[in-house]
Amino acid sequence: MQKIELQNLSKSYGNKDVLTNLNLTLEGNRIYGIIGENGTGKSTLLRLISGLARPTRGSITVNGQTTAEGRRNQIAYLSDQEFLDGFSTLGYQIQFHEKMIPGFQTNRVFEMLETIKLPVDRKVKNLSKGHRNLFNLVLTLANPAPILILDEPLSGIDTNKKEDLIQLLSSFTLDEKRLILFATHEYDEIEFLIDGLLIIRGAEVAYFTEDLEEMRIEHGKTIQQIFQEVNQ
Ligand SMILES: Nc1ncnc2c1ncn2[C@@H]1O[C@H](COP(=O)(O)OP(=O)(O)OP(=O)(O)O)[C@@H](O)[C@H]1O
């Protein structure tokens, strides 16, 4: 079973406290969404968990791994920054990932590219921004790591393609027993995708549930409503 544990986790940049004393366990074969206003520390949290930034205080354990290197082996991370070499073709990037990542699911990449109609002989720089984001997401999904951490995977992607993507994301956890944690501003789009919800505000966890369905059934609340209440 996949598990991310944060204990007394804090991160400051200079004298700015970005995250303060987070204690949280995310576990299971679930999709968790993180939402929060701009600059509230969502990307910072994802980078800390992924071993790409160091905590100022506290600890992070991912599937029993406490070191940054150990955690990185459990996680496929999609940054909100562009990282692909624009002059290479999609095909080259696929081969490169296949060489670098043990168990990389090349067949699934081709299947997904066919669904979203991206030709592999195209250069990365000639894709639109939305298509580049999609291609990055496809490469990340094909990484067999048990935990996927995605920073704004839906940004810049058309509404009709978003639906395909949301299907893809659910099938990736359901079939493969993975945990997905992703940051987003697209509250409406993720309403029926996520199982758990984390809202960050004022450097702290302002709201957390691992069972959003219960909130929906018992209290009839949408994510947008929960978010508004938390931010009042
Ligand atoms: N490397 C860094 N050095 C200094 N400050 C940083 C650094 N990275 C992030 N910050 C600051 O930390 C705060 C949180 O940034 P972060 O990118 O985590 O927020 P976010 O919630 O992901 O924002 P957005 O929704 O706009 O993407 C911001 O004030 C940001 O300026």
Written overview of the protein:
This protein has 232 residues and is an alpha/beta fold. 35% of the residues lie in helices and 26% in strands. It has eight helices and nine strands. It has helices at 42-49, 68-72, 90-100, 106-116, 129-141, 159-176, 212-219, 223-230, and strands spanning 3-13, 16-27, 31-35, 57-62, 75-78, 147-151, 179-183, 196-201, 204-209. The strands form two sheets. It has a six-stranded mixed beta sheet with strand order 5-6-7-3-8-9, sandwiched between helices. It has a three-stranded antiparallel beta sheet with strand order 2-1-4, covered by helices on one side. The longest helix has 18 residues, at 159-176. It binds adenosine-5'-triphosphate (ATP). Residues 13, 18, 36, 38-44 line the site of adenosine-5'-triphosphate. Residues 4-227 form the ABC transporter domain. This is ABC-2 type transport system ATP-binding protein.
